[in-house]
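Standup notes, structure subgroup. Blocker cleared on the pyridoxal-5'-phosphate input:
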Amino acid sequence: MFKNKEEFKFEFSRRIIESYGRTVEEAHITEKFLTLETMVRDYASVNWATTKSVVKNNEQKQMHYFSMEFLMGRLLVNNMMNLGIYDIAKEGLADYGINIHDLEELESDAGLGNGGLGRLAACFMDSLASLDYPGHGNSIRYEYGLFKQKIENGYQIELPDQWMKTGFMWEVRKPKHRVPVKFFGRVVWNESTGRWEHVDAVVVNAVPYDVPVVGNDTTTTNTLRLWSAEPSDDIPANSDFRQYVQNVRDICQCLYPDDSTPAGKMLRLKQEYFFTAAGIAAIVKAHLRVYPNLDNFHEKNVIQLNDTHPVLAIPELMRILIDEHNYEWEDAWDIVTQTFAYTNHTILAEALETWPISTMQTLLPRVYQIIEEIHRRFIGYVKEVSHRDQELIDRVMILRDGTVYMARLAIVGSFSVNGVAQLHTDILKERELKDFCDIFPNKFNNKTNGVTHRRWLAYSNPQLASLITETIGDTWVKKPEHLEDIMEHVKDPILQNRFLDVKRERKQILADYIKEHNGIEVNVDSIFDIQVKRLHAYKRQLLNILHVIYEYQEMKSNPNYRIYPHTYIFGAKAASAYYFAKKVIKLINSVADVVNNDPETNQYLKVVFLENYGVTLAEKIMPAADVSEQISTAGKEASGTGNMKFMMNGAITLGTLDGANVEISERVGDENCVIFGLKDQEVKDLKASGNYHAWDYYNNDMRIRRAVDSLVNGTFHENKEEFRVIFEELMNRNDEYLLLADFASYVDAQHRVATLYQDKNKWAEICLVNIAKSGFFSSDRTIEQYVHDIWHLEKLKF
Ligand SMILES: *Cc1c(COP(=O)(O)O)cnc(C)c1O
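Run returned:
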C-alpha cells in the first residue's frame, strides 16, 4: 500500500480528497484522524487475510479466548508501531504540518472492561499475535464501555462512556456471519426425532464485528470478535415488536460496572449467554466448513474461559453436539471436556459467581436442563470415588439450594483449571478449591499473569525504551527476557544518572497533566508514590490515605518532624453501587483539599486524585512512578498486573506478600523492593483465632487513634458524619481487611522507602534491577506457558 514516506503522503492525500472532497490542508482534524486510522486498518487487512488463509490451509489448531471484557485502550499508534509504519506516517504527516500526537489524542479508549481481568485479555491478544499463535478473542460489542468518571466536589459522578462517538474504524461488520441466539420459551420432547427441542423462544440475532489484532513485527493478525445483538425476523406472533427491539438493544448496551460481585440481574445472564452461544455457533460453523463432522472439534479448537462469565459455553457446546448433531451424551462430553480450560481470577467468596436456578431455567430452559444432567452425572461420580462422603458431596454440588455454582460447572467441564499467580494457585489448591483438587488433581495448574512490554514500556515510555535499547540493544522488544542483560549495567553511575533524568522527564509530563487537570502544583523532585487500580476495600486505598493523614498530623503537632517531600497520587473508579468505595474516594479528595492548602506542610506533602483512571491515563502514570503501592490484605489479590507495569517502568514495589508481589519480590530480592505486613498464613490464623480486635490497635497506638478519630471529628469535612461509614467499618465492623493490624508495619515500610530514596544512585540501581527482572512478567512468557501446558498450538508460518 505504501512503502515509504512519499507513498504514504500520496495515499493519505488521495483518501482525504476521495472521502471528504477536500485537500489535506482544508480537511478537519477529525477527518485526518479517521483517514489515518482507516489507512492503518487497510494496511493491516492484507496481513489479516494472509493469516486467515494460512490457518485454514494448514488446518491449524486455534485458541479462542472467551472473555466478557477486553480493555484494549487506544489502537492507532500501537498498531502502527507493530506494523513498523509509525515513523513513515509520523514524518509524512509532519510534511503536511500535522503533528501525529494531535491525531493520537482524538482516539477514544476501547474501554470494554473493568480492570485487571479485561486488561489481561488485551495483553494476551498482543502476545498471541506477536508470537505468531492463532488465538482470537470473543466478547461483546458494548455500546458504552465502563462509565466515565468525573469528580465533582470530591465525589465520583458516573457518565456514559461514549467511546464510539466519532466512529470505531477498526471493526468490520460481518452480517453474513450472524447467528441466532434463543432465550426463554420451553423445552419439548420430539417423539419422532428422539431429541429435545427448544420452542416458543425469543430469538435474537448476534452479528459479529471483527477487529484485527496486529502482531509486532510479523504477518500474524488475529481477530477480536465482538458480538452485537440485533432483532430477528423470527419473532413470536402478536408480540409488540417495539418492546422486543428495546429488549434486544439492552443486551449490548452496557458493560456491568463491577467485576467482583454477581449483579443479580437477568440482563447480565443474557449477556453471558449471548456472546458465549454466538461464539460457539461461529466456531462450530467454521469447523464444519473444513471438516465433515465435529469428532475432531477439540483437536482443532481450544477455548479458554476468562473467569466464570463465559462458562455457559460448556452446556451450550453439549447442546449443539446433542440436539443439533445427534451425538450421544458420553461422546459429546468427551469432546467438550477436551475443549475447555478455565482461568480462576478470585478467591473472594462474594465474587464467586452464582445464579438462581429459577432465573437460569426461565431464561435458558434447554441449557439449564443440560446443566442438571452434568450435575447429576458428576455427583454420581463423586459418590463412587468418595464412598458416599455426603459432606464432600454437599460442598461440590453444582446445583444446591436453588443456586447454580458457576465455578464448579467450569471445573467439572474443563480439562484445565488455572490460577493467575503462584500464591493464588496454591490457595485454590490447598483451601478454596481443595475438594475439587482432590477429585481432579491433574486439572489444576498455575499461570502467573503478565503484561505486554510493547504497550507498557516500548509504546508508553519511549524515553526509557530508548535508554534501554542504547544499553542492551533492541531485542528486548520481542524477547522481554533479554532485559536481564541490564543487570550487567545496574551499578554504572552514568546509566543510573541517565535513568534518573528519564524518570524526571516522565514525572514532569505527569506533573504538567496534574497542573492542567487538577490545578495542583507538584514538585517533581518529591517521591511520586502512586496507587492506581479499581477501588475496593481489599486493595486498601484506605490504608494508604490513613498513612497520609498520620504524616500530616505528625507534622502539624511536632514542628521538628519533617518528611522527605512526597506526592501521593491516586486513581480509581468505584463500582456505581459500592457505597463504601465511593466514600473512600471522597475521603482522599477531602484530605487532598486540606493538606494541599496548608502552607505549613504543603511543600512536603501533596495528595492528588486523578479522575477517570483507564488504560490511556495508566500509560502516562506508570512511567512517572517512583513507588508502586500494592498493599492488599495478603491472600486477597489474585495476581495484580498493575504491579508489573510499574516494575518495568522502574518503580519500586511497596507491597504486601500478595498475588504476584510474591514473585516480584523473589525475583528482585528483598533489597530491591519494600515488603511489609501480615503474610497470607498469618492473616488466615489471625482471622481464625477470633483474637483480632480493631479497638485494641486503636487504644494501643496513638497514631492510629488520632488518624481514625480524624474521620469523625471534623478535620477533613465540616459534616462530622461524612466519613462515619468508614469509621464504622474499621472500628465497629472490626476492620475486615486488617488495615490496623498492618498499619505500624506500613509506617515503617514508608520510612524505609524515604531513606532509600535519598541515596539517588542507589535508588536508580534498585529501579534498574526492577526493569531488568521484569522480563518474567511479560505476557509473552505467560502465553508460552499456556501454549505449552494447555493449548498446544503451533506457530503460524508464512
Ligand atoms: C493494569 C490495569 C488494571 C489492573 O491493576 P491492578 O493494580 O492489578 O488491580 C486496572 N485498570 C487498568 C486501566 C489497568 O491498565
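Discussed briefly. The first strand starts at residue 62 and ends at 66.
Next: hand off to the docking folks.
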